[in-house]
Amino acid sequence: MKLFAISDLHVGFKENREAILALPSHPEDWLILCGDVGDTVAQLEFALEVLGRKFAQLIWVPGNHELWTVPRATGQRGVARYEELVALCRQRGVLTPEDPYPIWQGEGGPHLLAPLFLLYDYSFRPDEIAVEDAVAWAQEEDLMCSDELLMHPDPYGSFGEWCAARCELSAARLEAARSEIDHPSILIAHFPLKQRLAILPGIPRFMVWCGTRRTEDWHRRFGAKVVVSGHLHIPCTRHVDGVRFEEVSLGYPEQWKRREAHRGWRLEDHLRQILPTPEKDAGDPLRDWQAQPSARLR
Predict the structure, then answer these.
(1) Total number of domains in the chain
(2) Does residue 3 contact residue 273 with C-beta atoms inside 8 Å?
(3) For the whole model, what pTM was predicted?
(4) What is the spatial distance between Cα 30 and Cα 18, in angstroms, rounded to a whole number?
(5) Potential cystine with 269: which of 38, 102, 182, 265 (Cβ 3.0-4.6 Å)?
(6) pLDDT tens digit sequence for 197-212
(7) Domain interval for residue 34
(8) What is the end-to-end Cα distance of the chain in Å, rounded?
(9) Helices within 109-209 (DSSP H only)
(10) Distance (Å, rounded) from C-alpha 6 to C-alpha 166?
């Protein structure tokens, strides 16, 4: 029994729906869905139906896209939308951040599996940029995230408030779990936990919408063996403080097809093995870019 992960399936795209339909079955294995499965409740339901038949157990955490309120479609906003998605998952036996953390007893175990819903608070930015100026700083490079129009923090007054509440709740649960269980943990979140791992080539200022500094030390604080995330659409493996960080995005059709052409990946290669530790990592296409002087934030 192995543990796999994938994120950013974006099944609103026909090619991505066909891709997950074509994935081989893993009837004894578990699969982490690390957010941005789709933009609507119906799209998430489609993916859970397909992948629920292929894997023994699914674990889901929300991305920003699942929390969108899409124009011309009825739907809940903010916390109510999240609770609607959690209810859908529970109807299908899918584990969520609101359920007790399971203990992985398969190959490479035991590990505490911790699905987390944490959001972002605009604190990923250079130190000289104030948090309240972060979005304006990104806009200087003509960057704007669709979340600003389609995602809502109701009933919180801001994403920062919602993020703070989610981080406080999650940290308390992790502290309690770690006090009772002496296993290494697998931290699972849509957004990267560290700012240095949240930089996109070409649009580095997009980091504003990519996480929170509140989680910078969580990989050490909560005894992580692996941290799994998505959001960036750049699958890679990196190591920080002896902890393996896996970005497991599929991404938009043109992105994963280019990956298959340039990196020789097959469709199944986009399923990243988390446990047991794979013989090969996923590579790090960001490493050379980040080493270039032109990659520095301005």
Answers:
(1) 1
(2) yes
(3) 0.95
(4) 21
(5) 265
(6) 999 998 999 999 999 9
(7) 3-295
(8) 46
(9) 134-139, 147-150, 159-180
(10) 23
